[in-house]
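Please complete every field before forwarding. Incomplete forms are returned to the sender.

SECTION A: IDENTIFIERS
Entry label: holo-487
Bound molecule: adenosine-5'-triphosphate
Molecule representation: SMILES string

SECTION B: INPUTS
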Amino acid sequence: MKARHPQSQTSCRRGIPMDAFLAAAVIDSPGLLVLVLDRHARAVCANRTLLDMLKLPSDASPTDIEACGLLTTAQRLKLSKLAAAKPGHAASRRMTLNPKVADRPLRLTMEAAITRQAPPSRRRYLILTGFDITAAQSLQDSLRRSESQIRAILETAVDAIITADQRGCIQTFNPAASRIFQYKAAEVINRNVSMLMPEPYHSEHDRYMQNYLRTGRAKIIGIGREVIGRRKDGSTFPMYLAVGEQIHGQRHFFTAIIRDISERKRMEHEILHISEREQQRIGQDLHDGLGQLLTGAALHAKALGGLLGRAAPELADRMNRVIELINDGIAQSRELSRGLQPVSDCQVFPTSLQDLAERTEKLFDIECSVRCDPLPPGVTVSDGTHIYRIVQEAVHNAVRHGKARHVQISLKTLGRNLKLTVRDDGVGFPDVRGRGLGLHIMNYRAGAIGALLEIRSTPGRGVTVICSLSQPENAADNSPAKTGNSS
Ligand SMILES: Nc1ncnc2c1ncn2[C@@H]1O[C@H](COP(=O)(O)OP(=O)(O)OP(=O)(O)O)[C@@H](O)[C@H]1O
Ligand SMILES: [Mg+2]
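SECTION C: PREDICTED COMPLEX
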């Protein structure tokens, strides 16, 4: 250290003598910055570490040090006031210095304290000691930046973003979550996330979490799926849920991103309903228009055939062939009409399933049995059509993919509840995730009538499709699923 008033011996506070060599070793200890200022806060000297940092030689003069712009005018003023303080006053000040070295801004934190020389000189000096916090500061700055970016994302996200700890306690709840679930963040923080789910998910949630933490087997985490959410007012809505996991040490944290898909579902329902209605209309037109026309033509042909038989017997065979063709046309238009409009009346729903089973047996040469109770009250033709199409797809999959030999269709009604089961003895499949369109539409149809769909597959032992509809005893039959044609 280049000092103007070197002392050959100094002493530490307790009075233990310290020689100049030891004092210099302390002053130049790595990382420690020392700057000595006079009572006007002008540079006197600096230790080796600070000189190195300022890219100055070890014999740099006070003017060289001053040229580095260590202090601002305001800081110099504060320090000179500190130097002028009466003895006995608290005389220290922490400050951040921002010199620039080769255009690289530095950030130094320094504590200034005043020292007085012994008589006779009694000169006052300010001793500034501290550290380079440039790296720590830039790390802190970038952490602060990324924190504010994350906060901006959370605040402006359209989707609800909720984080929870491994007990399921909510840690953060962004504004979109408040909008979707109608809770303020303060009302849910530290409460169990299951409060945002209706039954049966509400009761199953904790068991599911424990199960996951014990076995690592995930049903939603890292997968994402459509589930039902529950708002503060108790109403429920369909939502798409994606859950990610972060592990810190032994602790697991979960981030859920939730999108309210009520509108999409409503539109899907609308589209399906329109297409169902259109099919029904075409089916009726075929039956009532083309079908009746062909029936009329067949009657005329038959009458003509009788006349021809007597007047020109050689043409009678050809006429019979024409009648046969017309009758084939009638049968085909009926088939088409039935395919487009499989459930024309809820009363005859069991017959519709029976027809489907018979056609399946005939077409694929397998055994297809049906046990079907009458549909419960409150189930409309539109609901019945959805149920029929679910059976149709399940049977189709059993034959096409499962190579099943036996398919059992069962529809049981208990009061206003209904349980449909389609079981096959085919090859099954290992995983129900991310499959084709059929299962997806099946699932959608179940949702459209307010039912739950479950697909159980045991490889080598077949697939069971279960669709359960529970209708509240006192429910008015005017939910979106119940507004279909009930004629
Ligand atoms: N009963 C079943 N037995 C064996 N595998 C099945 C059965 N049902 C579905 N699968 C498997 O699940 C997949 C998805 O079925 P899904 O009905 O969604 O689509 P798909 O039948 O392949 O095509 P799409 O129904 O759109 O014509 C099938 O490809 C098949 O691998
Ligand atoms: Mg299919």
